[in-house]
UniProtKB/TrEMBL annotation:
GO terms for cellular component: lipid droplet; membrane. SMART domains: PKS_KR. Its main location: membrane. It is a multi-pass membrane protein. GO terms for biological process: regulation of retinoic acid receptor signaling pathway. This is Short-chain dehydrogenase/reductase 3. Signal peptide: none annotated. The keyword Lipid metabolism applies. It catalyses: all-trans-retinol + NADP(+) = all-trans-retinal + NADPH + H(+).
Amino acid sequence: MELKIAYRMLLFPIQMFYHIVRASLLSLLPSSKKDLSKEVVLITGGGRGIGSHLAKEFAKQGAKKVILWGRTEKCLKKTAEEISLSGSDCCYFVCDVANRDEVYKQAKVVREKVGDVTILVNNAAVVHGKGLMDSDDDALLKTQHINTLGQFWTTKAFLPRMLELQHGHVVCINSILSQSPIPGAIDYCTSKASSLAFMESLTLGLLDCPGVSCTTVLPFHTNTEMFRGMRVRFPQLFPPLKPEVVAQKTVDAVRTNKAFLYLPWTMRVLVILKSFMPQVALEEIHRFSGSYTCMNTFKGRT
Ligand SMILES: NC(=O)c1ccc[n+]([C@@H]2O[C@H](COP(=O)([O-])OP(=O)(O)OC[C@H]3O[C@@H](n4cnc5c(N)ncnc54)[C@H](OP(=O)(O)O)[C@@H]3O)[C@@H](O)[C@H]2O)c1
């Protein structure tokens, strides 16, 4: 027994070295992409913003069916019609992900009317965009209910069938603010940090479940209405991402089974800096980059 443990301990650093070298080499090579032609994709918040681009991208890349969830029927209908007109199969259901009963009820309706969901994209989110003392309690709670708990309910609704089929993928559109929070969006940053922990835990929990994977996407500021009015100090240096680019890179990450995707990749540097820099230096970076005050001009969705 002790010999076995000693053997494993000796092997461990070699395994680590092997995985790091292998992953680095693989990242340089074009990876094979999984076929989407049998996939039924459900996107929460699929009516507008990044969600609608995700829906169009999944359809474009050959998904069998795309299902949209959201609260505003007008947006859902418009996106579904656009996708259907391009020749892909798309439908929508009105569903508020913060409402647990509604999620379970609509998941049942989806299973009966459309079939088993094999790719779940947790994209729906809101931002209240204020500091703690300026936020009313209900607004703070609402963000947590939509951005964090909503994922609990959708994942609980669809993951069991994926595990039975040994085929499925859970995707989370997170944010770089989960790892590098800013003032003035305390509700959002907290919910995204919590959602990141949810995905990290889920990803590890599914290690022994063949055929079921996870992808977490952490984009930088993206050009949608969500953060309308937010002003970064050097927009030429840090331009907002285009939602269609976020969508395309997300679908690529799903098709190549990538667990975590930083957009742009340079955002990883921020995370590395945070792990060893003294707090005063980090504060200086926030001051210099303007992220410290960027929410002062925030207006949000109209
Ligand atoms: N924009 C950015 O700068 C940025 C950066 C990084 C990450 N992200 C993330 O990307 C994702 C999409 O954001 P976005 O920029 O596309 O924002 P957006 O344009 O405001 O879209 C948010 C979507 O979520 C839906 N939604 C909100 N509350 C919902 C609820 N309770 N139930 C169901 N659907 C709900 C909205 O539809 P209804 O209102 O009709 O329900 C809408 O379709 C979010 O997770 C966000 O955190 C955004």
